[in-house]
Amino acid sequence: MFEGLTAAAADPILGLADIYNADERTHKINLSVGIYKDENMLTPILNCVKKAETFLLEREQTKSYLPIDGLATFNSATQKLLFGEDSPLLQTGRVKTAQAPGGTGALRIMADFLARRTKVRRIWVSNPTWPNHQSVFQTAGLEVREYRYYNPHTHELDFATLLEDLSQISAGDAVLFHGCCHNPTGIDPTAEQWQAISDVAAKNGWLPVFDLAYQGFGKNLDDDAFGVRFFAEHQPELLIASSYSKNFGLYNERVGALTLIAQNDDIATKAFSQIKTMIRANYSNPPSHGAKIVAYILNDPEMKNEWIDELTTMRQRIHRMRQLFVKTLQEKGARQDFSFIAKQNGMFSFSGLTESQVLTLRDDYGIYTVNSGRINVAGMTLDNMSLLCESIVKVLA
Ligand code: LMR
Asked: Where is the Aminotransferase class I/classII large domain (predicted)?
């Protein structure tokens, strides 16, 4: 049965971890996978998370199953984070949320639900996008097509061609957007651009769906949800896959959520029951530990403030690294203008490095980025900046 199988290609992002770990050079620098690093190159457990874990460990009384859609206090807290504490939408019954194993788990449930329970057969993703989007949607049986997004010459959103492509998409298709901190480019639509995109969705009747994996890493929790909130207010239907991997640093706890919005409570209830059938057939019900941490923190005002402070620290450090990176590249003699990197949001930047430059950086200098040229700015520190920029300048020369 298995003898005819050929080996699958290594994952373009997670596959790099093995090569990086096996690299014995002590000065190696990891700018590949999207994980936050502090100034000491560590991915710390947030203090608020540790506190929540201590609290939960003392009080936990059972390991019995969670419901199919997960922990209710987590799901309601997720809705408030997505749409705002006092959002009138939350009183309508139109919004339903299921806890999911990470943002990827949420995307997969979204994909299965679309492919098996709706008429959607095709989903459009930005070019470029996170490579796993293609895999998740294709594996669920959807055809994946691309709309234009990025102008590699100006390093900006190619808004005119984006709108042109979105205007050609017909009703019955789904279109995926990154809620904020676009992965891999770090370039997001402005508020006005989100509104224009929403107008096209309303006019053409395609289904907007969101991947919101970096809320809090762009500007702040509210501004980063602008696109999602605007669509939630103006579209009859919406799906949102959200993740707590990055903003709570809960990567290996796999904490995410899938949120559905429908025209009214009745439709939402029925559609959500179908989402639950997808979950039941997939992993039955979600794990509890990570969701309990998030629910505890988000539902306790003091803990929530502590979390927001820690999230702000992470965001501001990345922002400082962006500026220092641009400045140091210039000081080391880069002839290219990299100022665009300081303007982008979140962890990632599309550096413009070619695949062969990426491979030279990896082989000759021990610097790891994704082959597409995507760099994780969160992997930069005051200590590694000089070597990093010197190496990049040499490779660019
Ligand atoms: C990334 O894009 O590096 C992260 O979202 C991690 C992953 O799963 O690819």
From this structure: 27-392
Alpha-carbon radius of gyration of the chain: 21
ipTM of the shown complex: 0.96
Beta bridge partner(s), residue 374: 350
Q: Look-up: residue for tokens 């290609």?
A: 9
Q: Residue 350 and residue 233: Cα distance in Å, rounded?
A: 31
Q: What is the pLDDT of residues 169-225, one digit of tens each?
A: 999 999 999 999 999 999 999 999 999 999 999 999 999 999 999 999 999 999 999
User: What CA–CA distance (Å, rounded) separates 119 from 206?
Assistant: 11
Question: Phi and psi (nearest 5°) for 367?
Answer: -110, 120
Residue 13 CB less than 6 A away from ligand 1: yes
**Catalytic residue among 158, 173, 188, 211, which?**
211
Q: What is the bridge-based pairing of β-strands 95-100 and 367-368?
A: unpaired
Q: What are the tens digits of pLDDT across the range 292-325?
A: 999 999 999 999 999 999 999 999 999 999 999 9
Q: Which 3 state secondary structure label does DSSP give 42?
A: coil
Coil, helix or strand for 97? strand
Question: Tokens 């599309």 — which residue?
Answer: 350
Reply yes or no on whether 188 is catalytic. Answer: no
- For atom 9 of ligand 1, which residue has the closest CA? 13
* Residue-range domains of the chain with CATH: 15-45+303-396 (3.90.1150.10), 65-299 (3.40.640.10)
Task: Tell me which H or E stretch contains 210.
Answer: strand 207-212
Of the residues 37, 124, 130, 165, only one is catalytic, namely: 130
Decide: 245 in ligand 1 pocket, CB within 6 A.
no
128 lines ligand 1 (CB under 6 A): no
Ligand 1 pocket: which of 130, 182, 211 to mutate (most atoms <8 Å of CB)? 130
